[in-house]
Design brief:
Layout: H1 10-17, H2 20-30, E1 40-42, E2 46-47, E3 57-58, E4 61-65, E5 70-76, H3 83-98, E6 112-118, E7 135-139, E8 141-142, E9 147-148, E10 153-159, H4 173-183, H5 198-205, H6 213-262, H7 267-274, H8 278-283
Parallel strand pairs: 5-6, 6-10
Antiparallel strand pairs: 1-4, 2-3, 4-5, 7-10, 8-9
Helix pairs in contact: 6-7
Amino acid sequence: MAKFINPLTDVGFKRIFGDKQIMLSFLNSLFEGEFVIRDLEYLDKEQEALPGDERNIIYDLFCKTDAGHEFIVEMQCRSQLYFRDRILYYMSRAIAGQGMRGDDWNYKLMPVYGVYFMNFSIANDDHIIDDISLYSKAQLKEGVNAKPFTDKVRAITIDMHAFNKLQSNCETTLDQWIYNIKNMEDMTVMPFKDKNNIFAYLETLSDYYAMDPEDRKLYDSALRRSRDYYATIESAKVEGRAEGREEGRAEANVENAIEMKKLGVDSLIISKVTGLSISEIERL
């Protein structure tokens, strides 16, 4: 068993980012130069269905800062066809939820930020072709100069799949965070502790052998589910490639048979060369 837990599992992610110190440090590194979060509280992750809708939604983590800003923080390892739409839907539900908290609400909104760790790329999803940076901060824009329409809704996507920096090249705290999250399961010592004490704390928090038995049991179960999923995906890819090769060979045999027929080659010889039956050859 690896020394550190895998943050890409549901239990591992929530154990790490469900810790206030970790969440504060990470969010402040993500928004460095924009604002500083001094405190936060975790909110109920389950959002009640809106009137006329039977569907509740459950975020991975949902918190509110001392300034009243709300953050949805999620890890998404499995690619989804309409992931951008999912982001918009989840953030819209958080916005709509603000109007359900009191009778005297006058439509004044607090900002909602969606932070999404993705172990895949959405650069080409939904037939949208564009360049997505490693850390993408998107918000509603208007006009020719693309000025912000509002600062109340912002989606931040972090493309883990595209992060290929070496440890020696991680200069910013945010880079150090992403490097540790992506590579943690393969580490024996947590890097960057000499630069930031939060990583020494992360080392202790994510130590598999320091977990209590019940938490370890939950993590082991989540890890098995994650590995089973990836094993299934890889098997499907292999089977798909094998089927593709068979289809390719079949198409090549037909093309060769057609060419040999044009040259007047006897059907029996064509059959022996291509594996096609005499009746199949005669239909070509």
